[in-house]
# Entry
Amino acid sequence: MKLLVVDDEPGLRQSLHLILSDEGHEVTVAADGAAGLKLALAEPFEAVLCDVRMPVMDGLEFLAAYRSAGGSALVIMMSAYGNEDAAVEAMKRGAYDYIPKPFRADEVVLVLRKAGERERLRGEVESLRSALGAGAASPEIVAESPAMRAALDVIAKVAPHRTTVLLTGPSGTGKEVLARELHRLSPRAGGPFVAVNCAAIPEALLESELFGHVRGAFTGAVGDHPGLFLQASGGTLLLDEVGDLPSPLQAKLLRALQDGEIRRVGDRAARRVDTRVVAATARDLRKEVEEGRFREDLFYRLNVVAVWLPPLAERPEDVPPLIRRLVSRHAARLGTPVPVVEPDAMRALLDHDWPGNVRELENAIERAMVLAQGNVIRKTDLPALRAAAAPVGGVGAAASCGATLKEAAEAAEAAALRAALERAGGNRHAAAAALGVSVRTLFYQIRRYRLG
# Structure
């Protein structure tokens, strides 16, 4: 195993380095909690042996900072006689085990063997989950574009850890869908997934909604309310539109993330919560920080792993499969057969820029299915969308003997696309402008005809 030993006693550090190296472990040492934290966050250790009492930063402070920053290694505390209470408290806060000082060499070796066995079994469980399909993307996820595939790759890598994730991107791009996928792929998949839109709840009620309240805390508080943090304990809490949190609640959220504790309104005692937080926002939080509307310390606490979801206009590859997915989903919900989308309607859907992103596309598909007659979606069933211009050029030689009308039209369209790209020197934006179509449509047709 790759181990980190954090202790302020030089003799003990030396002894542990020799003992553990002889057992075949790769050992790194640090003289205090601050130095240990820097090392622990810079390299992927499998286990950390950390003393409770140290200068600069003690063991409990190390553990809290390490876990808050997303550290996932097993932490084993070492405590002298009389400090067992602190070690037990550390275990309550997420430490794996503790060893009382002074200890024999075989004691620490045994604890590490048990830790290694636990990690081996956990790895086997994750492999089995993956083999059974837990690691495959949810049917709700469409990821044909490189941008979405990259986002899903990050989600899959961070899912096994408790690390805080910040999902950013324009409204309607599917941030909640991605948050649910993160939860589904995580070890917390069996726990609750709770989502709250921070912009949709009045400021006066938001603290109570997030952290709960006790009976009599304010007028109308006729009973205890656990709050969303407690309701999501053991699972995942999505704080959507987190950039809209008022300043006082930003401070309370920061404390909850740092300490793993919340205090209900009107309650004197804090409560431990085991809740993974995923935040989402359409705002530019860096700009909000610069302009004084969002706490810088909270931003860095949330922004441990950031995932950007680009607007639909920048991922045209996702539009056709999204249309197919939405048509099938709404057909099942409405109890109707899956309709056919006429070519003119499909062209209009592909050519639109979708400023409202996936949400706007879904609304357009649902509207069309409700208005459609004869189980066929026509262009007239769609809301007002900017239509694509007709292809440039004629059928010409493509209408050769034996070619169907469809084949001739496709050949002519491919020829027009190729000619426009050549005239534009390969500049796709210029070629799209010359053809009178959107860049999205041009990208889709280039892939369709394998022109680039």
Remarks:
- The two ends are 48 Å apart (CA to CA).
- The chain is about 45% helix and 15% strand.
- The CA atoms of residues 140 and 325 lie 8 Å apart.
- The chain has four domains: 2-128, 146-310, 313-381, 399-448.
